[in-house]
Fold these 2 entries.
Entry 1:
Amino acid sequence: MTATMTALFGGTGPHWTPRQVPVPQPGPGQIVVRAHAVALNNADAAMLEAADPTAGGSGKEYQAGYEFAGQVTAVGDGVDTIAVGRRVMGTAPASFAQDVPADHRHVLPIPDGLDDTEACALPTGLLTEHGALMTGGFRPGQSVLITGATSSIGLIGLQIVRALGTGQIIATTRSAAKRDLLKQAGADTVIITGEHDLSQ
């Protein structure tokens, strides 16, 4: 294995700049993933613009990226749930790089049949929705209301609660044309907000 890798940095201008940096080693609770694909998160573009010194930005340099998919190449102390060679998708700062160090709690196994280029776009949505459910004390059998359910995050949430064994899924949308989509995705009840008086 080489001692350096390519990573993308912001803060030098309007575009990310490739740079050679040392290959990371996993700390306690971390893994290192050889990235096969990375996703562009909304925050990436905002950070690049805010740091661009040619447009009044801060000029503060940083290694870019948040979402990735690839194969585990190294495992740190205290990690016994993920093995070297496993395909994973995850979220971590500085993931626009060939090798990404990540907290093992912030990665998920990639299901068979899911391509890396598809998988890399899912971690933030999956972890956000699952984290919200766990923070809210969700338990199997409970009913769940998902507002704005036809958004990408809403559709992810709908499928997560179905997989976790929810009692009833109530989904809202502003478009009657999307009722069938939500039913096919697993909603038991679809509320078209423009057609219902929700104040009662």
Entry 2:
Amino acid sequence: MSQLKQLITNDMKLALKAQDKSALKAIRMILGAIKQKEIDERIDLDDTQVMAVIQKMVKQRKDSISQFSDAGRTDLVEVEEAELSIINNYMPKQLSEAEIEAAVDKAISDSGADSMKDMGKLMGTLKGQLDGQADMGLVSQLIKSKLS
């Protein structure tokens, strides 16, 4: 069992003992998603694969929050934000916008990119470097603004 999965399982036990229903619900949701992936692919996930599942859940929550906000459903926004705050506990430390911008600038200068046709190459390079530590949507926006 991966260390991250073990940590999440231990946190579930703590939430059960503390009778923290919202945390317990979110943690069970994470473990359910991990278990589903393991069953679908017939493997035990390592930390990197568990992190990918968690990142997908974070993205889903952010999308849901945006859609619920647009629809004026503040009750659902609060539920999603509560789940997101618990899920984020398992994400690596996020880089600041300045750190992301510095990484984008370095990638552009290192690759010699000078137009939008280099966008895919830059995104591929930066995804490997910043995966899990930065919102790739923000990275994409920064690249577009610097190359246009």
